[in-house]
Amino acid sequence: MKFLDQAKIFVKSGDGGAGACSFRREKHIEFGGPDGGDGGRGGDLILECVANLNTLIDYRYQQHFKAQKGHHGQGSNKTGGKGDDMVMKVPVGTQVLDEDKETVLADLIQAGQRVVLLKGGDGGFGNLHFKTSTNQAPRRFDEGWPGEERWVWLRLKLIADAGLVGLPNAGKSTFLAAVTRARPKIAAYPFTTLHPNLGVVTLGDEEFIAADIPGLIEGAHEGAGIGDRFLGHIERCRVLLHLIDGTEEDVAEAYRVVRHELAAYGGGLDTKPEVVTLNKCDSLTSDDIEAKLAALREACGAEVLPLSGVSGIGLKPVLSRLFVHIKEAREADPAVLAASSAFGAGKRSTPHFKSSTEEDDGDDGRMGPNGEWIWDEEEDDDEE
Ligand SMILES: Nc1nc2c(ncn2[C@@H]2O[C@H](COP(=O)(O)OP(=O)(O)OP(=O)(O)O)[C@@H](O)[C@H]2O)c(=O)[nH]1
Ligand SMILES: [Mg+2]
């Protein structure tokens, strides 16, 4: 499915139906009087949030959406039927913006949520309505009221709990593929990922959603690379996972570049809780790992976790760390949407932890490809 996160569309609710002008005519009944019914209401234009979509691509091919007109009134005092509503299905996280692209008209964040964007016009009165003691045979009838119409922007801001950030090639997509059933494209060149990918991480009984976005480079906020256009998709995340390619010469600089872009984007991204990891530890020697972890620790002022998306080292500690922040945020503000419930059951599945020769069995990783140290904690009693 192609990914599209914004679309400009024309929406219109249905016009009301016209009232009727009619007189009762029956054998032996003279002066039967007016009996024109009212027109029906036009259909509403409704947006409905559904769980199993994550793109606005449908709105690329069709851009005009109109609800049906109300039916006209008829003789014998028959009121016209209501026009059919137009129901537009949009993914969770869709915002409706005015033509200026700033005013938010509606924000759909929960599956099943429905918003009446435009109301249908009322039907006009039939001539029966205008009958009075002094005007027993009115010929007046009203046209229906017109529906509303406007151009609006639909903008999708995906809803995820954890957002993956890093330079291109840092291994973000590899990580997503390792901890979820998502299958993003992975390759050894920058900008492999051109649009965000979501996956559901299952951790015991709990689950959360992770979002992988295209890599950031220096100057992204000015449009360099793919730019910061996709950062909007992690605006609603509760925690960011910052992956740093351990094979880079200067890991601290890599960290700073991405932080700078997050700050330049704004939207509160630089104040979100962050988990910093040194990725690709499988291709580093233990001395390298030590040195680079230390350099990163100094740059970010917090603990840095070693990780390898390819061999599965350190996945669980990282996930647990992410989940601590997610849980905290959920508890601190229960009104904040639980993203996984918003996402629905669409992509729910069992997790899939890759591991290399030895099992990274839940506690803390231990080995490297050549048997060197990676991640050891107190209760390591059987190896080395
Ligand atoms: N050795 C090693 N290589 C890795 C690891 N994770 C990713 N790679 C490799 O790094 C390259 C880039 O990986 P991706 O997952 O596509 O990186 P990305 O961050 O998603 O890159 P963009 O989408 O371009 O921003 C691929 O060749 C991966 O095989 C790892 O843990 N260890
Ligand atoms: Mg990628």
Task: Walk me through the structure.
The structure is a single chain. This protein has helices at residues 58-61, 172-179, 251-265, 286-300, 315-332, 339-343, and strands at residues 6-12, 45-50, 64-66, 86-91, 94-97, 104-108, 114-118, 149-156, 162-165, 197-203, 206-212, 239-245, 274-279, 304-306. It has 384 residues and is of the alpha/beta class. Helix 3 (251-265) links the parallel strand 12 (239-245) and strand 13 (274-279). Residues 172-173, 184, 192-193, 212 line the site of magnesium ion. Guanosine-5'-triphosphate (GTP) is lined by residues 166, 168-174, 186-188, 190-193, 214-215, 279-280, 282-283, 308-310.
Question: What descriptive keywords fit this protein?
Answer:
about 375 residues, alpha/beta, Rossmann fold, 2 domains, six-stranded mixed beta sheet, 6 helices, 14 strands, binds guanosine-5'-triphosphate, binds magnesium ion
Topology (SSEs and partners):
Blueprint: E1 6-12, E2 45-50, H1 58-61, E3 64-66, E4 86-91, E5 94-97, E6 104-108, E7 114-118, E8 149-156, E9 162-165, H2 172-179, E10 197-203, E11 206-212, E12 239-245, H3 251-265, E13 274-279, H4 286-300, E14 304-306, H5 315-332, H6 339-343
Parallel strand pairs: 1-3, 2-4, 9-11, 9-12, 12-13, 13-14
Antiparallel strand pairs: 1-8, 2-7, 5-6, 5-8, 10-11
Helix pairs in contact: 3-4
The structure holds guanosine-5'-triphosphate and magnesium ion.
Residues 166, 168-174, 186-188, 190-193, 214-215, 279-280, 282-283, 308-310 line the site of guanosine-5'-triphosphate.
